[in-house]
Amino acid sequence: MTYPLAAERALAVISLKGQMAHKFNWLIGVILGGSSLLVGMALWRHLLDDGSMAGYDWEAMRAYIVISFVTITLAYGGAHGQVAERILDGMVAIDLTRPVDFQRARAAEYIGSMIASLPTAAIGSVGAWLLFTPPAPASALAGALTAVSILLLFPLSFEVVYLSVLACFWTHRYGTIMFARESLVAFFSGVTIPLALMPSWLQALAWCLPFPHFTTTPSSIYLGRVDTLGALGLIAAEAAWVIGLWVAARVLWRHAVKQVTIHGG
Questions:
Q1: If 54 and its partner were Cys, which of 3, 89, 105, 196 is the partner (CB 3.0–4.6 Å)?
Q2: What is the pLDDT of residues 15-35, one digit of tens each?
Q3: Mean pLDDT of 120-134
Q4: 160 with 186: CB under 8 angstroms?
Q5: 195-212 average pLDDT score
Q6: Contact, 33 vs 65, CB < 8 A?
Q7: Residues 6+ apart with CB under 8 A from 140
Q8: Domain residues of the chain, as ranges?
Q9: What is the pLDDT of residue 198?
Q10: Across the chain, which distance is largest between two alpha carbons, in Å?
């Protein structure tokens, strides 16, 4: 008997095991991630001192930094280089002959590799909690809705990365695309600085993009900067981006396949 999504589950498990097999890389990720977390804490402690900026005091900022560390660790933890390489060297043509949906297969692999980054996020978060004791969520419901927002980050992160990888069909290079994508995510998600500290026009621009849902949405819900209705609205918007980007990726893939046909005969 063939079970639904059996191939995707198998691909996710293989990707997870592959990422966990590289123990040295995992250890480096823990060290670098923990170091960036400590630097962020030290910087904002100095900037805020006993004051506040845009409604963020030191207590709130401690939680914000931990949440941003968790979300960006997960978002950057997904493996995507191999897909870009297969597009650039033309080997993606072989994938077209396989009886597995290309997009769903890549999603399974990516999310499996994201799961491999959970220990890094967990270790960093526990360390930060022990050293800096950030506040608990505004309420039990806020904590649960924060978890929902972070879960939606898994497909959302994949779709942002996948769309950028598909651009390789036209650009024939990936390094610049990857740098641009990671820069946009870091800036417009609120990882670099909270969106509340940006000019109003820049905040408006950010909220026209999916990136604020990487960090600003879960942290705003966690800290109670939005009420329950506002939190549900943010989650609904995040879910809408997940659906919309999935469909957009389908459309772009159909055009990308034509590039393979043109160049590959």
A1: 196
A2: 555 555 555 555 666 666 666
A3: 79
A4: no
A5: 95
A6: no
A7: none
A8: 6-264
A9: 93
A10: 66
Q: Cα–Cα–Cα angle for 236, 242, 248, nearest 5°?
A: 130
Q: How far apart are CA 91 and CA 95, in angstroms?
A: 7
**Residue carrying the six token digits 């870091």:** 186
Q: Could you tell me which of 229, 201, 205, 206 has the C-alpha nearest to residue 216? A: 206
**What average pLDDT does the segment 235-251 reach?**
97
| Cβ neighbours of residue 78 closer than 8 Å, sequence gap 6 or more | 110, 111, 113, 114, 117, 157, 158, 161
Handedness of CA 6, 11, 17, 19 (dihedral sign): negative
Number of other residues whose CB lies within 10 A of the CB of residue 37:
22
- The pLDDT score that the predictor gives to residue 3 is 45
What does the DSSP 8-state code read for residue 53?
E
Task: Quickly tell me which residue has 């506002």 as its tokens.
Answer: 230
pTM of the predicted model, to two decimals? 0.84
Closest CA to 4 of 124, 112, 108: 108
Give the span between the Cα atoms of 192 and 128, in whole angstroms.
18
Beta partners for residue 53, in sequence order: 56
pLDDT category of residue 5 using cuts at 50, 70 and 90: low
Retrieve residue 179's tokens.
């740098």
